[in-house]
Design goal:
- The complex is a heterotrimer of chains A (272), B (382) and C (68).
- Chain A is 39% helix and 17% strand.
- Chain A is of the alpha/beta class.
- In chain A, strand 5, helix 7 and strand 6 form a beta-alpha-beta unit.
- Chain A starts with a helix and ends with a helix.
- Chain B is of the alpha/beta class.
- Chain B is globular and about 70 Å long.
- Chain B starts with a strand and ends with a helix.
- In chain B, helix 1 packs across helix 2, helix 3 packs parallel to helix 4 and helix 10 packs across helix 13.
- Chain C has one domain: Alpha-Beta Plaits (2-Layer Sandwich).
- In chain C, strand 2 and strand 3 form a beta hairpin.
- Helix content of chain C is 15%, strand content 24%.
- The N and C termini of chain C lie far apart (24 Å).
- The chains are: A alpha/beta (272), B alpha/beta (382), C alpha+beta (68).
- At the A-B interface, strand 1, strand 2, helix 3, helix 5 and helix 12 of A face strand 2, helix 3, helix 4 and strand 10 of B.
């Protein structure tokens, strides 16, 4: 590992538990690089996660780290941010953790526009439990609990976040890492709720069941299917089918929740 | 200076006590009959620079108070049966990760949605064993409005002192009744804060028993050295471990920090038990009816007394044990449930007493007359 | 464009042999030896660092002379 990044890791905890070719390490690396680029104060950064493969990431990262219960990272993170708005909060979560069991917390954190950067390690599968379909598993894909093909429709997490009120929404991939780092930086700099959906690869559980057992095959799929927001805007619904649209979807300046609460305090204390 | 006497509701006293104890963060979700606690917190906390947030659900409220507590805020949530059920997983997290917090459970009739506006005491066992796995917990239960105030302070003190969630187990009657109370001066209140570790040290092991009392000192998130908190079984450095000795040592420490301090944690009240033949065990609003019944029965010459449990969990076995050195022959456990505490009392009695239950679970209080009738019935058996 | 002196460091202990660096190097700098990357065409390296950024195991460092 590059020397200047070592301080951000708990090096004695590495190597990580993730399988060979798992994209989680790539996203974790991108997060750390973005933090380094922004020179955030390490002791004022809190990284919160739920349960699952992705949620093990904070354990390797040398910050204030909180590995909570399944789906609840945003609830804990909301408490931390409310109590101490000076802290920079990241939530690292998986597609199942965030959009299934944690779906309620997700839409409400977005609605409040609380200053939390949520990075979803979206590998379309429950990895830790061995490959069950999640709300992000594409229709017709196979999973241990969808042995005949998945009949559920999958969420578009970016659309969901935006309609729930998130004020920065973007999607990156583990193939396009330089762009991913830039998007994470943008998300971290954004004041308000930022959502970054990162299309990730799970060769072990998603890949193996869906004729892409090598990480290379999975990466190639991302490369082939990715289109930029700009190109996508000129494509028909049909042409977009199965495509991964990457880039920034939404950015707006809306009063941030803890700042609004600071005004409540002022009002309650007799100010205007 | 004239004494400040106020007519106050139980739920209101709870917030006043919490604020006096130093609560500066409350996260909650509306649920009858605890909602006033959230409402009053929403109004009063920002006046003191504290924070209130209404979360999207009960699970989130519990998560949020744990998060806030990690930054050093004394934090509380309040709920009732259905919401208390939902909070259980995160209560377990707070037990294992040793995050101080106070959870108020204003009991109403159950199961399920049950009887939302009516009192019950059906959550006795859930407060002890609601979350999965062996875990420590402290549960205390007030019987009057003034006691709600005092016990909310005590809930914070116990939680901070032992780094364990403390459950304030109320019931609808105690929560909603209004009584005249005289609140103490803030300066006369004993406040206990969690053991804080100076962040000047170079290596922080968040679960190291530095002081040998089983209670690791705590550092706030953001105060200095970054550290890791997890709901997985962890070693003294806070990182996950599946080592058998690490697991055993951690669970042993979590339990012993509570069970080695029973003299401090257990509170109960004996009334007329020295010469009593029958002692009525009760808690919460039921104890009020029992108290009245004991008074009336004594006037009739019945040798009856009462044991009021203020600490419900850990169970005050020593209070039952002490009764074995008195003439008591009958124990009558009065509670608004099917006999949840009765089973524990029986186990504690080890056959030394005849044990009876006085149980009511129809959403009505146990009346003094019902207690009197039951005592007379028990006396006939004797 | 006269830089060169690019060095690539591979931490063999950290490498899990996923092959991403080998497959996706735009200049085919890497070959495979039992699944592990070996540098076969260093002079083609443009210092784009994509292999380093895409390595899930932080096993690659690409850079100038300051790599230890």
């Amino acid at each position: 590992m590059r020397k200047e990044l070592q301080k951000y890791f708990r090096n004695d905890k590495l190597p990580h538990i993730w399988c060979p070719g798992c994209g989680h390490g790539i996203i974790t690396g991108a997060v750390v690089r973005a933090i380094d680029n922004l020179k955030l104060n390490q002791s004022k950064v809190c990284i919160v996660s739920g349960i699952g493969c992705s949620s093990r990431a904070p354990g390797y990262m040398n910050f204030n780290t909180l590995h909570t219960t399944h789906g609840r990272a945003l609830a804990f993170a909301t408490g931390i941010k409310m109590a101490n708005p000076d802290l920079k909060i990241l939530v690292l979560t998986g597609d199942g953790d965030c959009s299934a069991i944690g779906g309620n917390h997700f839409i409400h954190a977005a609605r409040r526009n609380i200053d939390i950067t949520t990075i979803v390690f979206n590998n379309s599968i429950y990895g830790m439990t061995g490959g069950q379909y999640s709300p992000m598993t594409p229709k017709a894909a196979f999973a241990t609990t969808a042995p005949y093909g998945n009949i559920d429709r999958n969420f578009d997490l970016c659309k969901l976040a935006q309609s729930a009120g998130a004020t920065y929404v973007a999607r990156g991939t583990v193939f396009h890492v330089p762009q991913l780092i830039k998007l994470i930086e943008k998300a971290l700099k954004h004041k308000g709720f930022s959502l970054l959906d990162v299309v990730d690869i799970c060769p072990t559980y998603f890949g193996r069941r869906n004729k892409m057992s090598s990480p290379i095959a999975m990466m190639n799929k991302i490369r082939e299917m990715s289109v930029t927001v700009r190109s996508a805007s000129k494509m028909s619904e049909e042409e977009l089918s199965g495509k991964i649209v990457i880039g920034e979807f939404h950015e707006e300046r809306v009063p941030e929740y803890t700042e609004e609460y600071a005004k409540v305090i002022e009002k309650a204390q007799g100010g205007n | 200076m004239s004494k400040k006497i106020i007519l106050m509701q139980g739920n209101e006293a709870c917030v006043e006590g919490a604020l006096a104890a130093g609560m500066r963060f409350f996260a909650g979700y509306p649920i009858t009959p605890s909602t006033e606690i959230a409402e009053i917190s929403a109004e009063k906390l920002p006046k003191l620079g504290g924070k209130f947030i209404q979360m999207e659900d009960e699970i989130a409220s519990m998560g949020a108070i744990i998060g806030a507590s990690l930054t050093g805020f004394k934090s509380m949530t309040a709920t009732s049966g259905p919401g208390f059920s939902l909070k259980q997983e995160n209560i377990g997290f707070a037990c294992l990760a040793e995050i101080p917090c106070v959870v108020v459970n204003v009991q109403r009739g159950g199961p399920s949605t049950g009887l939302p506006t009516l009192p019950a005491q059906g959550d006795v066992m859930q407060t002890r064993w609601g979350t999965h796995g062996d875990h420590p917990i402290i549960v205390i239960s007030p019987s009057s409005v003034r006691e709600v105030y005092d016990m909310t302070i005590r809930a914070f003190n116990l939680s901070e002192k032992y780094r364990v969630p403390c459950i304030l187990l109320m019931d609808e009657v105690v929560a909603h009744m209004r009584e005249k109370v005289e609140l103490p001066e803030q300066s006369s209140i004993d406040i206990i804060n969690r053991k804080y570790l100076n962040p000047s040290m170079s290596v922080y092991k968040p679960y190291m028993d530095y002081d040998g009392d089983g209670i690791p000192p705590m550092m706030n998130f953001g105060d200095g050295l970054p550290y890791h908190v997890t709901g997985l079984i962890h070693d003294i450095s806070g990182f996950p471990s599946t080592n058998a000795d690490v697991s055993k040592d951690l669970l042993n420490r979590l339990m012993s920090k509570i069970y080695n301090n029973l003299d401090d944690i257990l509170e109960y009240e004996n009334i007329y038990t020295e010469d009593a033949e029958t002692v009525i065990v009760s808690f919460g609003s039921t104890a009020r009816s029992v108290h009245r019944a004991v008074y009336l029965l004594r006037q009739e010459g019945f040798k009856v007394g009462m044991l009021r449990l203020k600490t419900i969990w850990p169970f005050a076995h020593k209070a039952i044990k002490k009764l074995k050195q008195t003439p008591v022959r009958n124990l009558l456990v009065a509670e608004m449930n099917f006999g949840q505490l009765l089973e524990t009392v029986k186990a504690s009695a080890e056959g030394a007493f005849r044990t009876y239950g006085l149980n009511k679970y129809n959403g009505e209080l146990i009346t003094p007359q019902e207690v009197i009738n039951k005592v007379r019935e028990v006396a006939k058996h004797a | 464009m006269t830089q060169k002196n690019i060095k690539i460091y591979i931490d063999e202990k950290a490498c899990k042999k996923c092959g991403l660096c080998i497959a996706f190097c735009p200049k085919k700098v890497y070959g495979s030896e039992g699944g592990k990357p070996v540098i076969v065409n260093l002079s083609a390296c443009t210092d784009c660092k994509l292999c380093e950024l895409r390595c899930p195991d932080y096993a690659i460092i690409v850079g100038g002379e300051n790599i230890e």
